[in-house]
Specification:
Layout: H1 3-9, H2 23-36, E1 41-44, H3 50-59, E2 63-66, H4 76-83, E3 90-93, H5 97-106, E4 111-116, H6 122-135, E5 136-145, H7 150-162, E6 166-169, E7 176-181, H8 198-211, H9 217-229
Parallel strand pairs: 1-2, 1-4, 2-3, 4-5
Antiparallel strand pairs: 5-7, 6-7
Helix pairs in contact: 2-3, 5-6, 6-7, 8-9
Length: 230
């Protein structure tokens, strides 16, 4: 099933279109998984099942999603998966990721692609990344969503300063951060590098200003410069 067919069948409330990934972001996920022939996939967060739909369509394989809030979304995520005929490919855990991820690790599960888009508190995202790393195969990929959020950007800074076993890969989307695992984590038990900086905090607030409110030539220019120098 192609991305345009999925988009036409998904039911997402008009008043909540900002919750799931955008169509072009979902298309990127589909193309990436398809191009890498990825079949072992996991995501934290499920909501309306949009990202899960594109992941399953691209991989054609079992997909694990973790989200305790289906009732909050009118169980539309499950309904969408069934409407697409993907219900036999989805393994949904309606529980918190901090309960499910350790269980998957204990079972010996391994994944090639993990999409982190669940709890967006820093501690929640950090726990999701911590376990995603342990569950990820070498040369596998972790994709973070909502990089405009301070919590996500702080996690990105941690990965950059403390996890040299990961390589950040470019994407065409400001709201994604894609990483590939290159090696085992070889840090010793005392390792730590500071990842909070005043620069990162100011950068976050500058991005909020540049992307919020009325678009101006100055904001467009600053965003262009930011993309060129990063």
């Amino acid at each position: 099933m192609k991305p345009e067919e999925i988009a036409a069948r998904l039911e997402i409330p008009q008043e909540d279109l900002s919750t799931p990934v955008k169509d072009n972001e979902a298309g990127f996920i589909y193309d990436f998984i398809n191009s890498k022939s990825i079949v072992k996939t996991l995501e934290t967060g499920f909501a309306y099942g949009k990202s899960a739909s594109y992941i399953i369509a691209a991989s054609g394989s079992r997909h694990i999603a973790i989200d305790p809030f289906q009732d909050k979304y009118g169980r539309l995520g499950i309904k969408n998966i069934k409407a697409l005929g993907f219900e036999n490919k989805l393994e949904l855990y309606e529980d918190y990721s901090h309960n499910v991820l350790p269980m998957l690790l204990k079972k010996g599960e391994k994944f090639e692609f993990v999409f982190i888009d669940g709890d967006h508190k820093f501690d929640g995202e950090f726990i999701d990344f911590y376990y995603a790393d342990l569950l990820l195969e070498e040369e596998g990929y972790i994709l973070l969503h909502d990089t405009w959020m301070r919590s996500t950007r702080l996690l990105m800074k941690f990965i950059k300063t403390n996890r040299t076993d990961y390589k950040k890969l470019p994407t065409a989307f400001r709201n994604f951060a894609l990483y590939q695992k290159l090696d085992d984590d070889r840090r010793d038990g005392m390792h730590f590098k500071e990842f909070f900086t005043l620069k990162s905090l100011l950068s976050y607030h500058l991005i909020l200003w540049m992307t919020g409110g009325k678009s101006t030539l100055l904001k467009k220019t600053l965003l262009y410069i930011k993309d060129k120098v990063k």
